[in-house]
Q: What sequence folds into this?
């Protein structure tokens, strides 16, 4: 297996091949999914390793004292050999991770193989593919908490222990000095406890982040802004607690703490900063100076950490492990948000380069995660990546489309007649030759009557079964709320109807499987999903100008979806699915059309606090499509913009108003649409009606509709797991 190590003498960092640790009794063997770089503690260690021997001595006077004692006891030659031997050895890095239990040691009964756990300890939660972790240094991850978020468990415990040492109370005011990773978590924990927080940090970006996550005010400690905020929030008395989460050699933090703390307030040291206490200032206010020892009670106690001897809860309420479990619970319940703290996620194979970029200042980050690659199983073969099954299409005994006279109109029934049906579908069908609007079905009589009056349906009813049993109806349009699509589609297919269903086809894998079971049972595969954008005239025209591809393509699709009005049924995620589940199939289908294949992998990342997503799709030929689905953009910006790059050419789509193609020699630009955008609904409906009339193939192969739906569902699976998902056909 691979592990990140450092030679403290030379400063060398390496990703070293080392033996897999054994699974000893009293602990578990954990395969790492994500590990967290402590940009404070670890970078300090990395920086020290790069110093000269004199610099190392100056930075660690405690170790120098041990060397002096050793010289007095053992002599210079023996001490020199001992020190050089220790310095010229590889030491591990890392202490906070999340992974999957691979083996369970004797005496462990609270987790099993396959469970997700968060792990702690600078000897047990290392940047390594596998770690043995003793019982009191791991905690099960709550259901629904993503592994990348659970990887914050240890640093969260450090912040939590600091807050506990401060003994904060509801309504108090606290000052957090240093808004790095620990300081940001301290600020969030205090805010969640009902404490108003003022933050101090010279980095404006970190101040802004802390304010966004709940701090009352933040600013540069050298400016008057922090002092003014404290005076305003405390009526001039000073803060109740100060949390020192800063590092470095400046004495400014402890001096600022004395100045802004109230009489008999508490100062808690969490970080590793200079502590030359100004005696008069601390004496006159009788300030209580406290230290926070890492993750909590049990730290540095080998009987607790290595032998698994817990402290009775009646005597020690919050131990290392209980702090770890508590922090995971807070994140799982949304009381602490670690997502915005993630500045960068790097592949584990790039660990050495990531440390270099951090140390050089090229990568400025609050939190950096290592994402671990697919691992080998016990036999040495690659283990399977997280997979979402794409249900196989089995048609059973194929039912042929009924023959019809050329002049016979296609009779259509609509189930649902809401805004989209009334504005985007029915106006095209009502004026189309060869189409008869036979029946409209709605759940309320008045809705059906309005649609009948407006579009000329022959009948209006609330009886779905009567429509499905009407042999004269050729095709059924399902244009209802998302949660009913799959069930209505299944019923219409079993009734032998051609079906046009608006997106999404299904909200769950079980619903999608149910639709395909109806196809297999009935032999009826006459199905179209309303993925209209692939039919847009401008997009088709641009495709022709772009021409065929010879190499992989890169596609970027920005969807400026905007905010929904409060009360919109689209926001009912518990019943109607997320916004992307409802709408995302449009954009995946468009990308697949342009790339000429169905996706084989999905990786999704969500912005914290809103529904903004980045979805990366992988295709069989190495092409990729990135869909940025955002709800927080400017209302005046175009809703959909797309770029396709391949073979030295670029295709651009500007919100279905204009397209252009650059081929290196010249630029082709379409005519600007004179009126409304044409997103392909008319052409899509024409193709569907033609297929129903002639008995020819449906406009989009059923296999592609299923693949697009499965890819849309895989977005949720990727978000939940914090990792790419492979799409594989179910067998």
A:
């Amino acid at each position: 297996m691979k592990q990140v190590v450092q030679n403290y003498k030379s400063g060398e960092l390496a990703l070293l091949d080392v033996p897999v640790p054994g699974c000893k009794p009293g602990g578990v063997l954990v395969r790492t999914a994500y590990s967290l770089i402590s940009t404070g503690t670890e970078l300090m260690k990395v920086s020290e390793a790069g110093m000269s021997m004199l610099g190392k001595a100056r930075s660690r006077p405690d170790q120098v004292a041990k060397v002096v004692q050793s010289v007095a006891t053992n002599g210079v030659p023996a001490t020199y050999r001992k020190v050089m031997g220790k310095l010229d050895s590889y030491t591990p890095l890392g202490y906070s991770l999340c992974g999957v239990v691979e083996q369970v040691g004797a005496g462990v009964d609270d987790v099993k193989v396959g469970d997700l756990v968060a792990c702690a300890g600078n000897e047990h939660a290392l940047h390594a593919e596998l770690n043995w972790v003793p019982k009191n240094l791991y905690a099960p991850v709550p259901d629904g908490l993503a592994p990348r978020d659970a990887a914050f468990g240890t640093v969260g415990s450090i912040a939590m222990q600091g807050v506990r040492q401060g003994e904060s109370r509801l309504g108090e005011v606290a000052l957090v000095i240093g808004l790095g990773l620990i300081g940001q978590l301290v600020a969030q924990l205090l805010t969640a406890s009902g404490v108003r927080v003022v933050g101090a940090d010279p980095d404006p970006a970190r101040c802004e982040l802390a304010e966004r996550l709940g701090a009352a005010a933040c600013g540069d400690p050298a400016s008057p802004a922090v002092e003014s905020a404290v005076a305003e929030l405390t009526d001039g008395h000073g803060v109740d607690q100060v949390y020192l989460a800063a590092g470095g050699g400046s004495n400014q933090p402890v001096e600022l703490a004395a100045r802004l703390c109230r009489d008999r307030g508490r100062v808690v040291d969490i970080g590793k900063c200079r502590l030359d206490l100004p005696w008069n200032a601390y004496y006159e206010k009788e300030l209580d100076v406290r230290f926070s020892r890492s993750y909590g009670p049990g730290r540095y106690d080998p009987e607790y950490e290595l032998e698994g001897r817990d402290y009775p809860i009646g005597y020690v309420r919050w131990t290392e492990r209980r702090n770890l479990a508590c922090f995971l619970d807070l994140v799982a319940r949304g009381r602490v948000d670690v997502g915005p703290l993630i500045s960068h996620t790097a592949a584990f194979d790039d660990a050495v380069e990531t440390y270099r970029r951090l140390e050089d200042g090229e990568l400025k980050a609050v939190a950096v995660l290592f994402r671990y690659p697919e691992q080998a199983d016990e036999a040495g073969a690659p283990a399977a990546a997280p997979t979402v099954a794409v249900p196989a299409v089995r048609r059973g005994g194929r039912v042929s489309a009924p023959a019809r006279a050329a002049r016979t109109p296609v009779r259509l029934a609509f189930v649902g007649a809401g805004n989209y049906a009334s504005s985007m579908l029915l106006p095209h069908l009502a004026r189309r030759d060869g189409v008869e609007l036979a029946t409209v079905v709605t759940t309320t009589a008045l809705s059906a009557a309005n649609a009948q009056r407006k579009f000329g349906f022959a009948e209006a009813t609330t009886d779905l079964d009567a429509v499905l049993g009407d042999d004269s109806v050729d095709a059924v349009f399902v244009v209802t709320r998302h949660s009913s699509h799959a069930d209505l589609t299944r019923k219409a297919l079993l009734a032998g109807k051609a079906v046009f269903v608006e997106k999404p086809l299904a909200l769950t894998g079980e619903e999608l499987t149910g639709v395909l079971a109806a196809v297999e049972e009935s032999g009826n595969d006459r199905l179209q999903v309303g993925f209209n954008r692939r039919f847009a005239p401008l997009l088709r025209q641009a495709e022709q100008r772009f021409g065929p591809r010879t190499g992989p393509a890169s596609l970027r699709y920005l969807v400026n979806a905007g905010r929904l009005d409060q009360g919109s049924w689209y926001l009912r995620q518990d019943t109607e699915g997320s916004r992307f589940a409802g709408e995302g199939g449009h954009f995946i289908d468009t990308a697949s059309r342009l790339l000429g294949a169905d996706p084989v992998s999905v990786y999704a990342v969500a912005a914290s606090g809103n529904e903004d997503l980045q979805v990366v799709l992988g295709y069989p030929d190495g092409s990729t499509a990135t869909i940025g689905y955002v709800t927080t953009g400017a209302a005046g910006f175009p809703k959909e913009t797309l770029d396709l790059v391949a073979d030295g050419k670029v295709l651009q789509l500007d919100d279905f108003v204009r397209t252009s193609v650059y081929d290196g020699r010249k630029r082709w630009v379409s005519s600007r649409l004179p009126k409304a955008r044409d997103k392909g609904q008319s052409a899509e409906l024409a193709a569907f009606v033609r297929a129903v009339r002639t008995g020819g193939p449906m406009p989009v192969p059923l296999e592609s509709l299923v693949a697009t739906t499965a890819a849309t569902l895989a977005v949720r699976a990727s978000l939940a797991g914090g990792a790419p998902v492979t799409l594989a056909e179910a067998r």
